[in-house]
Amino acid sequence: MAIEGRDETNAGRIRLGMVGGGEGAFIGGVHRMAARLDDKFQLLAGALSSTPDKAARSAAALGLDPARSYGSYEEMASAEKARPDGIEAVAIVTPNHMHFPVAKTFLEAGFHVICDKPMTTTLAEARDLAAIAKRSGKVFVLTHNYTGYPMIRQARTMVADGELGKIRMVVAEYAQDWLAERAEDTGSKQAGWRVDPAKAGAGGAIGDIGTHAHNLACYVTGLKVEKLSADLSTFVPGRQLDDNASMLLRFENGAKGMLWASQVAVGNENGLTLRIYGEKGGLDWCQEEPNKLWFTPLGEPKRLLTRNGAGATAPSTSVSRIPAGHPEGYLEGFATIYAEAAALIRAATEGREPPAGLALPTIEDGIDGLAFIEACVKSSKEDGAWVSL
Amino acid sequence: MAIEGRDETNAGRIRLGMVGGGEGAFIGGVHRMAARLDDKFQLLAGALSSTPDKAARSAAALGLDPARSYGSYEEMASAEKARPDGIEAVAIVTPNHMHFPVAKTFLEAGFHVICDKPMTTTLAEARDLAAIAKRSGKVFVLTHNYTGYPMIRQARTMVADGELGKIRMVVAEYAQDWLAERAEDTGSKQAGWRVDPAKAGAGGAIGDIGTHAHNLACYVTGLKVEKLSADLSTFVPGRQLDDNASMLLRFENGAKGMLWASQVAVGNENGLTLRIYGEKGGLDWCQEEPNKLWFTPLGEPKRLLTRNGAGATAPSTSVSRIPAGHPEGYLEGFATIYAEAAALIRAATEGREPPAGLALPTIEDGIDGLAFIEACVKSSKEDGAWVSL
Amino acid sequence: MAIEGRDETNAGRIRLGMVGGGEGAFIGGVHRMAARLDDKFQLLAGALSSTPDKAARSAAALGLDPARSYGSYEEMASAEKARPDGIEAVAIVTPNHMHFPVAKTFLEAGFHVICDKPMTTTLAEARDLAAIAKRSGKVFVLTHNYTGYPMIRQARTMVADGELGKIRMVVAEYAQDWLAERAEDTGSKQAGWRVDPAKAGAGGAIGDIGTHAHNLACYVTGLKVEKLSADLSTFVPGRQLDDNASMLLRFENGAKGMLWASQVAVGNENGLTLRIYGEKGGLDWCQEEPNKLWFTPLGEPKRLLTRNGAGATAPSTSVSRIPAGHPEGYLEGFATIYAEAAALIRAATEGREPPAGLALPTIEDGIDGLAFIEACVKSSKEDGAWVSL
Amino acid sequence: MAIEGRDETNAGRIRLGMVGGGEGAFIGGVHRMAARLDDKFQLLAGALSSTPDKAARSAAALGLDPARSYGSYEEMASAEKARPDGIEAVAIVTPNHMHFPVAKTFLEAGFHVICDKPMTTTLAEARDLAAIAKRSGKVFVLTHNYTGYPMIRQARTMVADGELGKIRMVVAEYAQDWLAERAEDTGSKQAGWRVDPAKAGAGGAIGDIGTHAHNLACYVTGLKVEKLSADLSTFVPGRQLDDNASMLLRFENGAKGMLWASQVAVGNENGLTLRIYGEKGGLDWCQEEPNKLWFTPLGEPKRLLTRNGAGATAPSTSVSRIPAGHPEGYLEGFATIYAEAAALIRAATEGREPPAGLALPTIEDGIDGLAFIEACVKSSKEDGAWVSL
């Protein structure tokens, strides 16, 4: 798969619609940039906001045909289905509670779906959605975007190849500080829905960022969390959901783990880090410096592996765009999810096998994410009892 | 100026052509991704290679209309000029020696030009080109892309605002190691032309990367180098151009400086760093971690300023796309050059003033770059004599 | 208190004896260097090994008077007590199981005691020892040496002064890798006793290094751990004690915490780190770079506070020996414990109040350390039940 | 050689005197701590200040016998020579201008000398002193203390063993900021003499810290600087000596170099760094994190070598005191110079060869240091002309 440019069959860019992502949104713009970077998609339609005015203004700002700016996602699904040049796929970038109904609607209408995480707000919905996706035969991609970072790809392959030996201990963290005070009182749209259980679901920090840390730990180690013991806290007064969560993990192979997710850890911006220790080696990675992966083979000096640098292997170089030392960042990692989604969608459209080497998060990861959230909440309510996922 | 999306007048994407950037090229792909990221350009035509087959294959891979894939840049200029839907601007991403003739051709044919650096291969050509550009009334943008990094923008404003006081000392470095051996013998197209004076011009490391360090030092300090004393070396046998250059600088305000450019410094990938010391403070920035800017006010603790983080100000936040802690990288900085180029081009097309706050490298910077290269060569030939720029 | 040189009364160096610390030992040499650095002690007697030959050889190597090299600690206590020029204080640097009997013997014989940690091998012994020390009226100093680092002193004062506001979350780690394989089979004396419950006590990693992390977290925050939920693991086959421990903490003020201690985390040497987050700020410190303390006031850029640098305050500067930027290390921090012990001992000898500003670990800290170990073991046996300390 | 404890012959501690180092001094205390750490010296006499009161007070604070606190170094030399228990060696820790007369006096009186750097204030004096030392048959040790850092020892051996191949480029820096303003006006004794040519000699920053950077570059590479082209600046008004110096270097093997010494670089504490690039590898070391040495073999990932860690070899481990991850600092490196001086002195006293493996700076290094200072001054006066050393 070439990262930049068209598919090997040069079938042209995939026609994309978007639900959510209007004025004041954050992740919608990220999805659009990610979709554009490698030129495999063109955004043609949108239900960008549930407020009609805002939807129209947002669509105009993005240069969409006004006729294809819809007042509701249902309208968009039917209208686009009816058009001969209608969209092929939809990106869902709403607050969490809308993921399920929107995804269901578009899958059942025959569209491929690219959906932000967490996949739904309950585990039951997540399982339903998986069944719906299966029945639909359509592609469903969950944007656990950190899995798109080249050095995460490399780390995953190193573990799979046994370079660390049997995994013993995993330390995953995602620390932020933007909710250390009541940002939800300042009119921040981002803060507002994330602290509202009706929109975010049962998880605060654990849903918003803990799921990323959990997903990444599992993605890289290839291991599932068997059970966890969690202690959720709400430090900022008046908040309903957790804003800090610490937990112990037990993985299926006997490995142990710790996970910390916090949105009140003053001095942290997006401190997603992963450390993995096995019998034969250790790995250390930090999202804020994603082009670096520290690897220590037992008894040898620590080595700095860099994206496209000495020691980089195909799993990372194949999803890199530029030479070592020229940093790729968050958008590039996100774009890789889109590039791989494009490859899956093209293959599905053409009825052939997708190219080898794709390493996208699956709908199964989405189910695991909700199982994680629900286990956290349950364990914490039971004062840290071990809860199976 | 909104970074993502269309111009405030929503005039649609700028029609872009490209010269160079076909198969095996590096910087062409970078320009294309940079142009796409913020959705202000669409690539419609190309003379992607001087080898016709390669040009056609490259155009097809990019999904260009075959009719608009040209065998030569001259052909492209006339054909596109003749089309009612012809391109408005051209991106020049060839080896250095072609910058001048291609830019001249397109400027004179009435196109806006976005040109890679160094601007030309001689100072005389650079001055000619400036005159040509002036006569043409067209926009000329030089992609000294590192000036697009948000924290470089912030650093520049901090210096201009006097936060460092009068500048005393500047230390600029650009260290790489990819030419530590004869990469030019391995079939690397990138290495091949860079070590060939007929294509690269009189400068090896100084032209390819020293110009970036020089440009960045001047861009951030707002000071010009008055004279320099250089020691150029060619460490790898059989090479005609310098692969390591060290020099002393004297700036117009009495500040002193050092500049080191090397392509043989084993262990360095793209180690472009800038340190600036004034009477009241010091700054430290490194391209490989571009989201961070270290600032020490005299007598106070060192502070870490981050892109979009606490302490970030408008010059950096206005060219940021995503929140603090989610790293932006090389492509985003490059894209900012394109976004600002788009604003300039739109304003020119519509006969109005460009929006405030643009901070693009100018054609004057291109002249300074060639003056820098020629001064380096002259000084080194004269055993380090001080040479005025 | 002057760090270097004699006490303010210039009473000369304190006469010191040592139990343990003969050939092949590690911590004995550390205590000796620490005691010497500031010239407040002179080592005059020793029972350096339970093997008489070794004891004599070790004493000779250290230049001790052969008459004052003893075959047993009991003999040393009585003989030194009988000498008019006998020692005033003893340093106990044996494996853990000997701390109690040796300390008891010397305290009851009227000597001041400087004892390595953990203080004893059981909580019951720890409490006994505290009572014995109290009855004796002698000084008892526990070498939780990391508390001697200047920036730890500063951190502690910052928390006490409210610069972080109410503490919410504490993350403490101590990660090593030297026991990732069976070092105990290689003849390593250090590894040998640490994995032997008869000598180390009930804790492996938790006793050897977890206690340091626990002590430091409490020392800096001024908070006690109220209860903990621990998961102890023994990853290396055939080992009886834990070599990896992860746990959740709850502090008395409602703060939460995590603590990880591991001796099998490949790639870690002595990764003792402490991160503290309060309502108003965050702190980050790492033992391997002890001269640096990262401080982020809420909503402001992160600041790098350095030992004796800008932003350093009396609690750190008063225990610093050399200027900022000239690193002090482990031995200097350890030496500060000795310097403060000397001040305590001198004051006790002279029947006056010790100077203000001492911040030594107390015998209470030793009790807390054993309570920590026993709580960890109990919690882990009960599958992570919360256990009060 | 054992680092801690007595010489292999167990001959007891060397009797040491000190000239300079009284109240308000900096480096005297450093020498005393360094001499004490490994227990190979005992300080017995001093001419600690040229002000008699101050000398007496300082001696008392250090616990010296008042009879051995002298009012002048000449008096000390004769009196100590006359005592059967007189000192064997003297440490000279005065401002620079006194190094020569004091060293001459003590050497000629038959004492071994340990002298701070720069060795003298002129090259002529340096050569004289070398001749005097040679005639005396006594040991002369110059405390270019940074050569005592374990990882510097390792770096030196790696270069000597060819792990970097032929050296091409050396970048040495020593940046501070404590003289960014007129500290000499604040009553700082340290600042006062350093900016006074009568006491410091012809070099300001180049003498005080530039000599360290020069010495370290030569020490590690094993190469001499053949010529240099320097640009000295005095940025702080009213100052007579340079406070910032930048220069180009040419080494005897054809390698090039840059050296920057500054005392006005705001944000730098003791930023002594050394980067060395050869045909086969690169090294990077920074004094502020001295336990780390970065090594990149050409075409392989960068490796972090640590003191006593994986990859550490005898040249570093033999001068280490404590395990990897427990940082040793400035005083330990300094102490190694003293430990090796002790070994030299013992060997001289006993008329035998010194033990193998000593790697102390020699009197030849002291001559090179003065040649460096004089070449810098001359080159700068001649507007950067190349001057041979």
TrEMBL record, chains A, B, C, D:
InterPro entries named in the record: Gfo/Idh/MocA-like_OxRdtase_N, Gfo/Idh/MocA_oxidoreduct, GFO_IDH_MocA-like_dom, NAD(P)-bd_dom_sf
Gfo/Idh/MocA-like oxidoreductase N-terminal domain residues: 14-142
MF-aspect GO terms: nucleotide binding
Signal peptide coordinates: none
Residue ranges of every copy of the GFO/IDH/MocA-like oxidoreductase domain listed in the record: 152-283
Alphabetical list of Pfam families matching this protein: GFO_IDH_MocA (PF01408), GFO_IDH_MocA_C3 (PF22725)
Chain segments annotated as coiled-coil in the UniProt record: none
Protein known as: Gfo/Idh/MocA family oxidoreductase
Annotated source species: Jiella pacifica
